[in-house]
Specification:
globular, Rossmann fold, OB fold (Dihydrolipoamide Acetyltransferase, E2P), binds S-adenosylmethionine, 22 strands, eight-stranded mixed β-sheet, 456 residues, 3 domains, alpha/beta, seven-stranded mixed β-sheet
């Protein structure tokens, strides 16, 4: 059969899931990506795009469903860009993620043999997020629409009544924000003209403390107009401990402001994790799944094999969660982080928890590592939790030169994990084991911990 053409209708068996969660079917080796299809489905599809090496197709009818297919519980599923795997049973989601990690490490990293430990599934597969960022747009007559972007349509926002990834308290808060903003007829920002006020709302919740935070991102420092909204929110939802206003007067459609005003309560909420209490402010990074983050960090801690006398280096330390948790089992911990705000949070969190054996160093890993080496710091153990892009080549080279005995790599991107671990193995490390941890059920995001040891 010739390569399918745009507009062709054909029958397809889905045999895999792609990185982003689309089904993969093949016609004589030619790959078709099919959104909404899962492995094991037999579907009739229409080809909507036919490139030379792969194409895309849309489901016309589901001829025979996969045994792993389940009913997606969310009414926005398929339209909302939030979760893409709700139609796949949880065990099949876990198997998919485990396979992605294995495939990346062997294909991209050229790695093997190593132990791939079973993926650590999440106990809560819905309602697990402690932070959600919503966009505010003009809605009905009396209320703004507040919700999430439609999949692949950055200009369309779905007015979300209930998001199944956050708790019912947060859903109540989301609804109340709509009511309060509507009752006061606050103008919503218009991206095209730049007129209006309200732009985004980020909701956060300390899952262990039940403290809630609302961060309203607006186009102007309208403290007077927004304070009654904050008061209304606290009256209706008593767990609200913090309402802040971040001002973004620029065109860029981002939920980050250039200045912050406190509207009500404290400028942060608290969350407890691993026996420590963290202060989380509106612009702080904090792991979004508290329960699974605790389990992820337990895997990291076990991987470090600390006896108490070690110097530990925590690269890409963020607000210091890993540093502070491991400080209890180390002689001294150095955290390295580029964001000054995150460093300030880490220092504040160390103080609040009475931890005195941590030093947080601001700067990029590739510049800070050589300085540390020049200063004679020789850590036995290095933990690294880089962003999706993984290590900068110079940072990786500096790490291999530093040559710690044990290396624990926490990754949110199996492709860059594979690339970096492949490099480290070529520079004298052995990959011992990898354990994926599911931090984000219903989404294709994959987290994994890799343990490497310097070959003698
Ligand atoms: C995945 S987060 C780490 C989170 C941290 N382990 C925690 O749980 O709080 C990655 C961090 O790397 C930081 N970062 C990004 N590029 C960096 C660089 N070149 N050097 C140092 N830090 C960097 C980001 O600001 C972010 O805080």
């Amino acid at each position: 059969m010739a390569k399918p053409r745009r507009g062709d209708t054909l029958d397809l068996t889905i045999d895999d899931l792609a990185f982003g969660g689309e089904g993969v079917g093949r016609v004589e080796g030619y790959v078709l990506f099919v959104r909404g299809a899962v492995p094991g489905d037999r579907v009739r599809v229409k080809v909507v795009e036919a490139r030379s090496r792969f194409g895309r197709a849309a489901i016309e009818s589901l001829e025979s469903p996969s045994p792993d297919r389940v009913e997606a519980p969310c009414p926005y599923f398929g339209r909302c860009g939030g979760c893409r795997l709700q139609h796949l049973s949880y065990p099949a989601q876990l198997a998919f993620k485990e396979k992605q990690v294995r495939d990346c490490l062997t294909r991209i990293g050229g790695l093997g043999p190593f132990e791939l430990r079973p993926i650590l599934g999440a106990p809560d597969i819905y309602g697990y997020r402690n932070k959600m960022e919503f966009t505010i747009v003009r809605g009905g007559v009396d209320k703004p629409a507040i919700g999430l972007h439609q999949a692949d349509r950055y200009d369309v926002v779905l007015d979300i009544e209930r998001c199944l990834l956050q708790s019912e308290t947060m859903n109540g808060l989301l609804d109340e924000l709509r009511v309060q903003a509507g009752a006061r007829r606050l103008p919503v920002y218009d991206q095209a003209s730049g007129d209006g006020l309200l732009r985004f709302a980020t909701l956060r919740e300390g899952r262990r403390t039940a403290e809630a935070m609302v961060n309203i991102v607006a186009a102007a420092p309208a403290v007077e107009a927004l304070t009654p909204v904050a008061e209304g929110l606290r009256t209706r939802v008593p767990s609200v401990a913090s309402v802040v206003l971040n001002v973004n007067a620029k065109k860029a459609s981002v939920a980050v402001g250039s200045e912050e005003h406190l509207l009500l309560g404290r400028d942060h909420i608290r969350e407890s994790l691993g026996g420590l209490t963290f202060q989380v402010s509106a612009n702080s990074f904090f792991q979004t799944n508290t329960v699974q983050a605790e389990r992820l960090f337990a895997v990291v801690e076990a991987a470090c094999e600390l006896e108490g006398h070690e110097t530990l280096l925590d690269l890409y330390s963020g607000t210091g969660a890993i540093s502070l948790l491991l400080a209890r089992r180390s002689r001294w911990v150095y955290g390295v982080e580029v964001s000054a705000a995150a460093i300030a949070d880490a220092v504040r969190n160390a103080r609040a928890n009475g931890i005195e054996n941590c030093t947080f160093l601001p700067g990029e890993v590739r510049y800070v590592l050589p300085t540390l080496m020049r200063d004679g710091v020789r850590p036995e153990v290095v933990v690294a939790d880089p962003p999706r892009a993984g290590f900068h080549p110079k940072a990786l080279h500096a790490l291999a030169t530093l040559g710690p005995a044990r290396l624990v790599y926490v990754s949110c991107n199996p492709a860059t994990l594979a690339r970096d671990v492949g490099d480290l193995v070529r520079q004298g490390y052995r990959l011992e084991w990898v354990e994926p941890v599911d931090m984000f059920p219903q989404t294709p995001h994959i987290e994994a911990v890799a343990r490497l040891r310097r070959a003698q």
